[in-house]
Amino acid sequence: MKISLMLASAYVMRGDVRSTLNLATALAERHEVEVISIRRQKEKPFFPVGPNVQLRSLIDLRPGVRHLLPRGQVRTEVALWRMLRSLRSDVLITTRPGLGVQAAKHAPRETLKIAREWSRPAVPHPVKRSYPRLNAVVTATEAAQEEWTRLLGEGPGPEVHAVPDALPDGPWPRSRMDNRIVAAGGRWVPAKAYDRLIRAFAVVADKRPDWRLRLYGGGTEERRLRALVRELDLHNHVYFMGTTQDLAGEFAKASIVASTSRTEDLGMSVLEAMGCGVPVVAFEGPRGPTEFVATGYNGVLVPDDQEDLFSAALLALIDDERRRRSLAAGALETAIRHAAVEVADQWEKLIAGLR
């Protein structure tokens, strides 16, 4: 069976890209699998891709590459239309609403078309109009499944299924839980709210000065976050570690992973932390960490916008090694349910049922 997975770009650092490439690698063990990247900005993808996965792009944005059509939306739409019209795959999996709409319009009728969705579309009307031509919509969590079921409404249309995100196959690095490090990873953008984490850690640093906060990633907020660290005099306590392809390996050096995102639609960094046996402290919310973190089992959830309580939760875990290790065991049990081989099996059963 030939399976195509389509990404806006396979070359950027995003949780949905990480999850999709993990799934492609797992499926490629038993099927012919390709990842179609609409845009290509770099020589290699940021995240690793399995050796059995074919990778192709439609628009090459690397410096020095010439094109017949000028840059812009028209060139992208023409390239996408041509690719979809000539697609010869048994299954096509899209990864955002805009791509799902185009697949519904232009992909061959005999191709099984599945939209993999993580968040609600910004403009729902095209989705409601086009998605009835798809065979299924798949979300990563049950909460998202309910949201998409309400969005698509009653009547003819694809059924909405829930299949979890895939972590790469192990063995995973395991935290020894004895390093005095709190870690966080992801894009440094306003929605991730690293400013909340830095302010909360200022309280921790005052009371437990031997602990450190390591921030992994990169983004537009870096200058502002560095200024906040200087303002709070945390230069000996908060470290900007930059981007890494081995976030799991870095999380394994920590004893706690923190998530302070305001609009976390995807919990890949949370899942990666749990795969390393590290408990997670996160803010509550309708999506994201709330759907993976269970207080007292694999981490701690804190009411949103309560930075003082977030500091208190970090301090409580810092001072209780036995509890940290207990939560770490629950984190590992949670991660097992997201192992790539398990998730690939669920996708295969879903596809078989649709066919």
Brief digest:
The protein has 355 residues and is an alpha/beta fold.
Give a description of the structure.
The chain has 355 residues and is an alpha/beta fold. The protein folds into 2 domains: 2-166 and 339-354, Glycogen Phosphorylase B (Rossmann fold), CATH 3.40.50; 181-336, 3-Layer(aba) Sandwich (Rossmann fold), CATH 3.40.50.2000. The protein is built from 12 helices and 13 strands. The strands form 2 sheets. Strands 3-2-1-4-5-6-7 form a 7-stranded parallel beta sheet, sandwiched between helices. Strands 10-9-8-11-12-13 form a 6-stranded parallel beta sheet, sandwiched between helices. α1 (15-27) crosses α12, α6 packs across α10 and α9 (268-275) crosses α11 (321-336). It is globular, with a radius of gyration of 21 Å. The mean pLDDT is 90.
Order of helices and strands: EHEEHEHEHEHEEHEHEHEHEEHHH
Tell me the strand percentage band.
15-25%
The CATH class of the largest domain: Alpha Beta
CATH homology superfamily of the largest domain? Glycogen Phosphorylase B
CATH topology of the largest domain: Rossmann fold
CATH architecture of the largest domain, please?
3-Layer(aba) Sandwich
| Count of separate DSSP helical elements | 12
Integer tally of domains:
2
Please tell me what the overall shape is: globular
The residue-averaged pLDDT reads 90
Strand line-up across the major sheet: 3-2-1-4-5-6-7
Structural class assignment: alpha/beta
